[in-house]
Inverse folding.
């Protein structure tokens, strides 16, 4: 594998203990704030020294505590895009981009800077001072500067988090082109599951310094290995669960008896379902003939609306599996519908029929 | 009253302060850059030693310098072999002034260097820059305003140096008599007019220095203010 990482570093309140291999191309690293994502990037770039372990990039050992190898950052040839971009404010854009190109002659350097400026769409900015740039411009220049040294790996720290929606899609396109232009590992740190999902095929989930999931994004998404991964990947509905002798599962917090697509393993302690997987059979498109027998009554039960919240295209509804009891107003399920579905659903008298399709329920051990 | 004809204290003071400030600038910035963001016991010990001249009475500094450069010390013996004497000569005024102004330079340079966003130096390192290039091209240019302010402070302190100078350089008119020494000995001999004149000159030099620093700081602030406004307009 082009990038092999196995490191251990004591942080303020937990130990960063990470082991994984990354192929060429983008790998999204997902984790909550303070999970150790930035520290991981800093260790790979050589700005921090792990206590123990090995970092090997394209066959070159960057760090090996056993062999006493610890290349300084300047010799690692890794492009790191800082969260604050870290442009040199006293230099022009062209000087920033060309900073790492000391081995070239002035003419070669100018040509390379012009080429990178064109690729990152900052041609008209090259003469400007770095401190005159907007956030999005700074980021493009910082990316051009990191790419200038033709890095063996690219590390991007939250490249999309400070962008507005319009800018974000531009930057995403730029990053995609960058990833495709050159075969090298590109680790992209983010705390946003949607970003992570769009950026790469594989997903690595980091929690309190540990890799809690790593694999193709669809698998990590559909079958989270544990509740932590489920939550970090945006799963809103998780309940304690108990496996019954007949293979069904009692969802303790939802007070439901549910059937899973495959009999739940005996070790199952939790089950979950994503908000957009919750179905409302009665709110399906009108074309469904009313007379047709409801195809699946399995895992269907009545629900009452607690409250709802609106986004431009979707509606989030918070549901209870019991009618409101005076002493208790706990919300049990969170579902997401499209606006047309919601418009139909709201005309139906409560309780609504809600279905948790067996294929979309996933069991978890911890 | 006889007119003052001997201007040598002014030239000696200026020459001493300029040379001492240049020394202290180079050594102070080098020390601050070396100290950098180091933490731990060594940094504390080094800091304490570097700041001693600031807290010790100048007579103590002068006495210690006298011991260090006197004939009985290894340094003094070496100088004697080279047929050079430091004590009670003009270089002694420079050594005294540089020693007492060093802590001010060191402190301001360290603060100025620490103020530079550490990710800038880190970015430079990931782009292949060695430590000396990081210092020359990133840290010093960005810390420059603070270092310049420290230089002015150090110069002012060097100009006002009295106690240590008297201890190690003595008061030799035309050779080691700086303005502060001239004032002291004028008062001691009852020559109030001469004392007044040197006091007026000292005040004038200090006012020019402080005025210049104030003007320059304001200009800096105005410049950065303009930049901020530009950025805000851009973002809007």
């Amino acid at each position: 594998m082009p990038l092999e990482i196995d490191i251990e570093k004591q942080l303020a309140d937990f130990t960063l203990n990470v082991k994984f291999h990354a192929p060429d191309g983008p790998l999204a690293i997902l984790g909550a704030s303070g999970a150790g994502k930035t520290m991981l990037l800093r260790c790979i770039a050589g700005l921090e020294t792990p206590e123990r372990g090995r970092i090997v990039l394209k066959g070159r050992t960057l760090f090996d505590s056993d062999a006493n190898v610890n290349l300084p950052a300047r010799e690692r040839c890794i492009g790191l895009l800082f969260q604050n971009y870290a442009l040199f404010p006293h230099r022009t854009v062209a000087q920033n981009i060309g900073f790492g190109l000391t081995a070239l002659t002035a003419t070669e350097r100018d040509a390379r800077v012009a080429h990178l400026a064109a690729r990152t769409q900052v041609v008209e900015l090259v003469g400007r001072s770095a401190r005159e740039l907007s956030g999005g411009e700074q980021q493009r220049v910082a990316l051009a500067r990191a790419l200038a040294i033709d890095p063996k790996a690219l590390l991007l720290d939250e490249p999309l988090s400070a962008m507005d929606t319009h800018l974000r899609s531009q930057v995403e396109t730029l990053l995609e082109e960058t990833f495709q232009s050159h075969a090298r590992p590109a680790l992209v740190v983010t705390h946003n599951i949607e970003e992570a999902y769009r950026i790469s095929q594989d997903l690595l989930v980091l929690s309190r310094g540990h890799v809690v999931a790593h694999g193709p994004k669809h698998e990590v998404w559909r079958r989270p290995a544990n509740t932590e991964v489920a939550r970090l990947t945006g799963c809103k509905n998780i309940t304690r669960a108990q496996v019954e002798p007949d293979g069904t599962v009692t969802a303790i917090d939802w007070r439901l008896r549910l059937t899973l697509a495959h009999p739940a393993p005996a070790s199952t302690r939790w089950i979950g379902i994503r908000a957009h997987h919750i179905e409302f059979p009665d709110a399906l498109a009108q074309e469904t003939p009313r007379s047709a027998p409801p195809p699946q009554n399995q895992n269907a039960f009545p629900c009452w609306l607690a409250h709802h919240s609106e986004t431009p295209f979707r509606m989030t509804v918070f549901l209870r599996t019991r009618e409101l009891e005076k002493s208790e107003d706990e919300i049990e399920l969170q579902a997401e519908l499209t606006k047309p579905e919601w418009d139909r659903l709201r005309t139906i008298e409560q309780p609504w029929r809600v279905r948790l399709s067996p294929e979309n329920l996933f069991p978890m051990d911890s | 009253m006889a007119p003052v004809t001997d201007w040598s204290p002014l030239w000696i003071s200026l020459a001493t302060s300029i040379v001492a400030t240049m020394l202290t600038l180079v050594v102070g910035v080098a020390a601050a850059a070396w100290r950098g963001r180091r933490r731990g016991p060594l940094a504390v010990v080094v800091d304490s030693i570097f700041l001693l001249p600031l807290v010790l009475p100048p007579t103590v500094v002068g006495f210690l310098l006298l011991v260090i450069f006197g004939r009985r010390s290894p340094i003094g013996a070496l100088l004697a072999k080279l047929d050079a004497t430091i004590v009670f000569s003009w270089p002694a005024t420079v050594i005294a002034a540089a020693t007492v102004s060093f802590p001010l330079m060191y402190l301001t340079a360290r603060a100025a260097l620490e103020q530079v966003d550490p990710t800038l130096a880190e970015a430079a390192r990931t782009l292949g820059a060695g430590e000396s290039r990081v210092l020359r091209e990133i840290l010093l240019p960005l810390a420059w305003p603070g270092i310049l302010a420290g230089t002015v402070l150090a110069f002012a302190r060097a100009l006002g140096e009295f106690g240590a100078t008297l201890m190690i350089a003595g008061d030799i008119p035309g050779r080691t008599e700086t303005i502060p020494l001239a004032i002291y000995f004028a008062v001691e001999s009852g020559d109030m007019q001469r004392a007044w004149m040197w006091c007026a000159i000292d005040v004038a030099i200090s006012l020019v220095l402080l005025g210049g620093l104030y003007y320059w700081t304001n200009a800096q602030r105005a410049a950065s203010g303009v930049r901020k406004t530009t950025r805000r307009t851009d973002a809007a």
Summary: The first strand of chain A starts at residue 3 and ends at 10.
